[in-house]
Structure formats: C-alpha cells, structure tokens
Amino acid sequence: MKSQDESLARARGLFNIAVTPFAADGSLDLPALTENVERMLGLGYDGLLIGGTYGEFPAMNTAERAALFRHAMDVVGDCVPVLLCTAHADVRVVKELTSLAGELGGLPMLMPPFVSEVTDGQIVRFFEEVAPLSRTGVMIYNAPGVGITLSVPLIERLCDVPQVVALKQGDLNPTTVDQLVGRVSGRIRVLAASDLVMLGPLVLGFDGVSSTNSCALPELVKATYDAVRIGNATDAGGLHRRWYPMRAVARKLGQPQSTKAAMNLRGWRGGHVRQPLQDLDAAGIEAVSEALHASGMVTI
C-alpha cells in the first residue's frame, strides 16, 4: 500500500494472523513463513497480519521483527494488505518499526506502551507523535490480553488523529461491539481481533476479522467468513460450530502453541514457540489431533 487512503480502502475482510515459525534452535524459519503465507494467498484470504501477539512479537528483538516485516512484504508484495504489529514498551522501538512498516507498504498496528498509570491524554499524545511516521496510516491495536484496554470514548478520541485508519478490537463483549458500531463505524475500519466470537461482530457491522485458527483450519475459517459475508447466517453458524473443538483446545492449551501443533499435524510448517511459551507435550498434541479430527480435518 502506498498511502493511508489506500489503507482505509483495503483494510477489510478476513485476515490471517500468521504464526512466526521458529526452528528447534530458536531461530526464525523464514522459508516456513513463506510457505504459510503463500498458502493463505492461494486460498484467497483478504489480508495478513505479521508479528502480532500470536506471532510472538514480545519474544523477538527489534532486528528480528524488522527482518520478519521485510521478508513477509517481499513474499506478499501488493497482493493483499499486510498488518505489521509495531507494539513495544519502548516508544523509540515503536517509532522505528512504525516508520519501517509504512515504508514497506504495510499498515502498522499501534498499541499504547505497556507502562503503569498512563493517562488517556498521554495515550492520545503517543498516537499523535507516532502515527505521522507512517505514510500508510496506522491501525489501533486494542489488545486487552496484552496491554491497556482502550475504552470506547478513548478510541473515539484516537479516531481524530488524522493518520488513524483502522482498529483491531480485542474487547468483543456485546455492549462494546454495539457501541463501536454505533460510534466509530464509518469513520475508520473496524476488525474483530479474534475468530473465537467472530459471527456477532461481523453481523453487527464490523469490517472484518483477524484469525489465528485460520493457520490450522484455513478452509473452515474462510468458509465461515464467506457465509457471513453473503448473509447466510444459518450456514455460517453451522460452519462455526463445526470447528468448535479447535477453539476449545485453543482456549485450554493456549495460542499459538496449539495452532502450531495443529499445523504440524497437518503437514505444514508451524514450527516451535519461543520461551516463555513451551511446545505442547504428547498429551497436548493428542488433544489437538482429536480436535482436528472432530472438526473434519485429516492429519498426516
């Protein structure tokens, strides 16, 4: 993408949250990332998210994250929009990665720095300082499980920052979803951050969803999304229920470790996780295998 107007136009649809494959020695496995990205492009996904929370960005240094950005953008080119997570506790790192992400043609995802007792005014000022560094605009990344939970009134204030074009929303309780649709939709693009409860936000008016489970179940997740997109709620509900076993395993065993295990079981290169996460043990892998079979997926 070349401008924030283009980002605003294209930041919609079904985005695959790519896991970051690590080799057994902990190094980045970029050839595996290439294979996984090309699979999603071939299946017709609308976009990709690189280096997000389930991409294990906190476990990588700045140089590794920059290398990940560059490699992903080299593979994708301009085929689909790419969200590049630039979150960090150090504002200097956020600025460096945000500038790079925009230069590469991705859409930087900004999260407030992880510091205690930061005020709403300080968060607004942070976005005002960092967002102009990206020529493609920025996406607000509201990730309650990782950092600060942004309230709806604060998100409204952030929408006044000229470079803000989108929101990836992690707090998906019905009241918050309703408020965002009523107060923010139409000003910026709004994506549901999780596929665990994707149907409600999409039906109510969100512009898209980002999905980690799509790494393991790309066909089912896309079929579910496509059914919603064409207004077939009955089929969408049936498809969503079909892959409940994988959602249950993900909630119990955690992501991305359960997702990577599922990918490996399907013969794809999910790779390993980095500490402090741990790869699943034999019992966990068996639980993932059972969930895949219950969802109708064949493993190797």
Q: What can you tell me about this protein's structure?
A:
With 300 residues, this protein is α/β, with parallel strands linked by helices. It has one domain: Alpha-Beta Barrel (TIM Barrel), CATH 3.20.20.70. It has helices spanning 4-10, 30-43, 62-76, 91-104, 120-130, 152-158, 174-183, 199-204, 218-229, 233-242, 244-253, 257-265, 282-294; strands at 13-17, 47-50, 82-85, 107-110, 138-142, 164-169, 189-192, 208-211. The protein has an eight-stranded parallel β-barrel with strand order 1-2-3-4-5-6-7-8, surrounded by five helices. The longest helix is centred in the N-terminal third of the chain and has 15 residues, at 62-76. The mean pLDDT is 95.
- Describe the sheet with the most strands: 8 strands, parallel, barrel
Low-pLDDT parts are none
Q: Portion of residues in helices?
A: 40-55%
In total, the number of domains comes to 1
How would the blueprint of this fold be written?
Blueprint lengths: L3 H7 L2 E5 L12 H14 L3 E4 L11 H15 L5 E4 L5 H14 L2 E4 L9 H11 L7 E5 L9 H7 L5 E6 L4 H10 L5 E4 L6 H6 L3 E4 L6 H12 L3 H10 L1 H10 L3 H9 L16 H13 L6
Parallel strand pairs: 1-2, 1-8, 2-3, 3-4, 4-5, 5-6, 6-7, 7-8
Helix pairs in contact: 2-3, 3-4, 9-10, 11-13, 12-13
